[in-house]
Amino acid sequence: MAKVIVISSGKGGVGKTVTSINLASALNKLGKETILIDSNFTTPNVAINLGAPIIPITLNNVLQNKRTIFEAIYQHHSGTKMILPSLALKDLNGIKPELFVDSINELKKHADFIIIDSAAGLGREALFAFNVADEILIITNPENAAATDALKTIQIAEKLNKKTSVILTRKRQDKKELSTSDLADLLEQKLLAIIPEDNAIRESLYLRDAVIYTHPRSRATKAYLNLAKKIIKQQQVNI
Ligand code: ADP
Ligand code: MG
Fold it and tell me: Percentages helix, strand, coil for the chain, rounded to the nearest 5?
């Protein structure tokens, strides 16, 4: 049975999509059956960041009850499997969001990990996937605004009785940013991972693949692989 991990944040542009792509790719590289899902219906970015061609069967088709979730699995050339929404806004017509839970429950039987990239903010689209989450990974940057918005996301997740963990991304090691300990104090939890600011990420976006493949020796790659190993270890403890 897969563990469903939802990647969330309050603030936009903090690294949710980059983390979703690289965590899913790292879990897949480490031999775990992993499926990456983009639940940003209005502004999907996973396909764009990975240079995925227009995929034939979308998550929209599944939620329109036209296709099964299994038919919507697309395998990227890197090997990572994913389920992606349509890039066209007109395909939002006829979507029944309530079909998502049942689809994920079916999919769970056939994978080790399901990683869901979600939208920014605390609106309906952002919280869409929270119901199916076994754990919510909250992404923040070392800045007050991002941390404050992360705290709100944690509070909402906790109200839904969801386990939360925090990942700090884009850490630069300078004095102008929030320190790791101040951030942990503010959010009242230890950080699960720290991903450094790394130009390799921007280059990987240009190359349209996960940084773990484009820059295997980069600091960001090491951090994402360590995160994946930690998550695998936690899963083994819980079984
Ligand atoms: P979100 O999904 O939260 O809106 P993205 O994952 O799209 O955010 O990241 C926003 C931008 O931040 C990316 O375009 C990328 O250039 C940059 N970025 C993300 N993580 C890093 C990092 N560790 N180092 C450098 N740049 C990063
Ligand atoms: Mg995003």
Answer: 40, 20, 40
C-alpha distances (whole Å) from 175 to each of 44, 55, 157 are 34, 44, 31
Q: Determine the pLDDT at residue 8.
A: 97
The number of angstroms, rounded, from the C-alpha of 16 to the middle of its chain's C-alpha atoms is: 6
Residues with CB under 5 A from ligand 2 (ion): 16-17, 45
How many structural domains are present in the chain? 1
Please give the average per-residue pLDDT across 40-45, as a whole number.
92
CA angle 27, 78, 14 (to 5 degrees): 60
Give me ligand 2 centre to Cα 17, in Å.
4
Distance 62 CA to ligand 1 centre (A): 29
CATH at 215: 3.40.50.300
Residue 134 has pLDDT above 70, yes or no: yes
Ligand 1 atom with the smallest distance to the CA of 18 is: 6
d(CA 174, CA 115): 31
Please identify, by atom number, the ligand 1 atom nearest to the C-alpha of residue 197: 24
Range of the domain at 29: 3-238
The pTM of the whole model exceeds 0.85? yes
Separation of CA 233 from chain center:
19
Q: Which tokens go with 67?
A: 């296709």
